[in-house]
Amino acid sequence: xxxxxxxxxxxxxxxxxxxxxxxxxxxxxxxxxxxxxxxxxxxxxxxxxxxxxxxxxxxxxxxxxxxxxxxxxxxxxxxxxxxxxxxxxxxxxxxxxxxxxxxxxxxxxxxxxxxxxxxxxxxxxxxxxxxxxxxxxxxxxxxxxxxxxxxxxxxxxxxxxxxxxxxxxxxxxxxxxxxxxxxxxxxxxxxxxxxxxxxxxxxxxxxxxxxxxxxxxxxxxxxxxxxxxxxxxxxxxxxxxxxxxxxxxxxxxxxxxxxxxxxxxxxxxxxxxxxxxxxxxxxxxxxx
Length: 288
Description:
It contains six helices and 17 strands. The longest helix is centred in the first third of the chain and has 15 residues, at 81-95. The chain has 288 residues and is α+β, with helices and mostly antiparallel strands. The protein is globular. Helix 2 (81-95) crosses helix 6 (231-243) and helix 3 packs antiparallel against helix 5.
């Protein structure tokens, strides 16, 4: 596999030292699942995206539609937001800004690539239709025990829920910024619970303004302690916040992630009245 070109980008930041790094293989034709997993594990990022030709009938502009699969170092995931953003930025550098259409295991995901005022590229994905569901008391208690969080550390304004916008995430509100900053959890215990509930991350949230939030995402099922910037979780959180009436139906939210692990990034979440889907956008830049 030495002839496979693996690109390295970071999402939700213009600084290569910020945001969430991901791998991108723009031509994965001929790679089977084992080879994709080997490449993702060797790279060591939370996800790597692998592109192949689009399925018949996908639609989209010729030459701007693709199939994409996402692999963490340990397993395939159905959808990954930050790897989608860097894939779109990488494609934008090669084929120009504009509309892309991606066929993922979670569904069809449109992505718009635009040029920022300073000449950088920005990608905005539109999620599959989201949903929000309750979490059982026993499962919540186990999650808090694995995190080492007393129930009193939860923000009562953010009822625990499981939210989906391509992947499943348990959303928990932290009552204070200090609680969010102090993340030291039982890796194996949280991983076991997440596998039982088919969760991709746990989305930990602290509100700092009407439309501003700090977030963190433990990701033990992917083989890493924490994801630095999580687009799929941001989309799920947008759906959660709208359904619970925490934000207006028309809203633009700003999520700050990665500060506590030294890789700051900024995610923009857009909600539109009458459209259940969630848009997540951010900048990206090549590493090295």
